[in-house]
Design goal:
The chain is of the alpha+beta class and 264 residues long. It contains five helices and twelve strands. The radius of gyration is 21 Å and the shape is globular.
């Protein structure tokens, strides 16, 4: 997977959604022609038509981005296919999902890994948000080839990481206060402090109250990346200090929990 294919996939999704949104207007238009007394139904079609138009715009935009990145990706160096935790800067994109489907790319526009809900059942699309919050979230961290490396279980009071050499359990210390969340890893005597903006996606993570370990920013993508990433607001995740493998996986798990509650 690379950014050319990502934009192509986004275009197809938008096109299918736009076509699906046209089904009710077509049905009620035909119904109104058959039974003129029910022509007032036409006013109910406006939201579907507006949504279909928006989907068409998104389709055209992503189709153009796909075409622009196709030749660039063909000329670019082949991805080194590094492990996602060995890359200092990761660019994040999102695919439609009832919970979270986050893709992680290197600066050359190649997929380094994915973090997504393992239980992607159709019924989850229709669940209200408050009901979704009551469920245990089961995310999988996958590598570039789609192989599951780590399972992340997010419960009410803990985040459990399964699949590492050692089991990791992060405990919530403060329950989502305004602007920050703190997690404790009792086994390794570590604390993770997430400081986030109230009205933006931006967030920082500190380990043991020292210098910032990781930063998530939206709208600060380097100009050199824009050949592959056409949206200047593509979120950028930067690891700022030497973290070991477990610490980086823990940081990704905390960001996954945070982003599942943020509009993206």
């Amino acid at each position: 997977m690379n950014m050319h294919r990502y934009y192509k996939q986004k275009a197809i999704i938008a096109l299918n959604a736009g076509i699906a949104a046209l089904i009710p207007p077509i049905y009620f238009t035909v119904y109104g022609l058959i039974d003129p007394l029910h022509r007032y139904f036409v006013w109910l079609l406006c939201p579907f038509l507006v949504y279909s138009f928006i989907c068409y715009y998104v389709f055209v935009l992503n189709k153009k981005r796909s075409e622009e990145t196709k030749s660039i990706m063909e000329e670019a160096a082949v991805s080194l296919e590094k492990d996602v935790t060995s890359i200092e800067k990761l660019l994040i994109t999102f695919l439609p999902s009832p919970n979270l489907h986050m893709q992680l790319y290197d600066h050359n526009g190649y997929l380094a890994g994915e973090l997504r809900d393992i239980n992607q059942k159709a019924v989850r699309w229709f669940m209200p948000y408050f009901a979704e919050k009551l469920l245990t979230k089961t995310y999988g961290l996958y590598d570039h080839s789609g192989r599951l490396n780590t399972t992340i279980l997010i419960k009410k009071n803990t985040i459990e990481l399964i699949g590492l050499d050692q089991k990791v359990v992060l405990h919530f210390k403060d329950q989502r206060s305004k602007g920050f969340i703190e997690f404790l890893d009792y086994e390794r005597s570590k604390s993770y402090y997430l400081e986030h903006a109230l009205f933006r996606m931006d967030a920082k993570i500190f380990i043991n109250s020292s210098a910032e370990a990781a930063v998530l920013q939206k709208g600060y993508m380097p100009l050199s990346y824009q050949s592959f990433f056409k949206d200047a607001n593509t979120p950028l995740l930067t690891f700022h200090r030497e973290l070991n493998h477990i610490e980086k996986i823990s940081v990704l798990a905390i960001f996954a929990d945070y982003l599942s509650t943020v509009d993206h």
